[in-house]
Amino acid sequence: MTTGPHRPATGPLQAYLFADPAAHSLSPVMHRAAFLHAGLPGEYEARRVPPEDLPAALRGLRVPPACGANLSLPHKEAALALMDGLTPAARAIGAVNTVIRRGEDLIGENTDAPGLLDALAPLTGPDRGQAAVLGAGGAARAAVWALQRDGWAVTVVNRTLARAEALTAELGGTAVAPAEVPWENMALLVNASSAGLSRPDESPVTDEVVARLPAGAAVYDMVYRPAETRLLRQARAAGHRAENGLSMLAAQARLSFLAWTGADVPLHVFLNAAQAALEPHAQGEAP
Ligand code: NAP
């Protein structure tokens, strides 16, 4: 799914995050650790790029030593029209989180989708069934696209039903109002909504919903600040396997790094760097 050069890079490399805001991002520590691990001369810089400056920032990526960039809020959708090419994932999801320089061309990729699948693999095992995705924004779009390609039958649940319906009309799956979801059938619950983000006491679902999930269900919360969200506490109290979104963040970073450099750095390098950077910070800090 990820487009990469499939060869080790040789010269010095420069990668970026373009976002607004860009402070507090864990991407620099993850990618710097990856450059070190791979023994590659490279640097990763987080730049605050307001929307009106995105075209100029992207122009700067077209020449060495730039190898690419990550894009975050608010650029993931706006970048689509500024790329020379898009991977199938970026085109279908309608969002670019990774820009890859190929010669002077910029290719838009989405590593959130395969990153989620990599993060889910240890939690779900090989069986597939019904999955509920909470949310209808960019993260939910990536989840719905990825999970369906991975063999899951996806139900999209969002507090604004019309947004869930618009998403499924485009990407597939079934949009269901929260009160109508057959939670007993959901082997997997993925929170791709912002509920719980920086709010340790907020959950996108009630205790009763979590208790209705079948035995052996897996719950994945894309939120990782705070590390222990209310949803994860609810899930563990009900005996379900549960994990926060740090593994997805690390997995998407690993795939971006692979696409830029050709170096397949192990996931734990990204995960350990992100965890170490998070530890001194107070829970509830802004993302
Ligand atoms: P987004 O486009 O702003 O969408 C937010 C979604 O959350 C909307 O569907 C919104 O519902 C819903 N929502 C917001 N507050 C809610 C609440 N209190 N209760 C229930 N639903 C609520 O955001 P996004 O870019 O998709 O990101 C969603 C989350 O995923 C964020 O927490 C983000 O940090 C996380 N994320 C994590 C990773 C990772 O690597 N771990 C990657 C990408 C995103 P309405 O439609 O009704 O407004």
UniProtKB/TrEMBL annotation:
InterPro entries: Aminoacid_DH-like_N_sf, NAD(P)-bd_dom_sf, Shikimate_DH, Shikimate_DH-bd_N, Shikimate_DH_fam, Shikm_DH/Glu-tRNA_Rdtase. The active site is at K76. The keyword Oxidoreductase applies. Pfam families: Shikimate_DH, Shikimate_dh_N. NADP(+) binds at G135, A136, G137, G138, A139, N158, R159, T160, L161, A162, R163, M222, G245. Pathway: Metabolic intermediate biosynthesis; chorismate biosynthesis; chorismate from D-erythrose 4-phosphate and phosphoenolpyruvate: step 4/7. This is Shikimate dehydrogenase (NADP(+)). It comes from Deinococcus ficus.
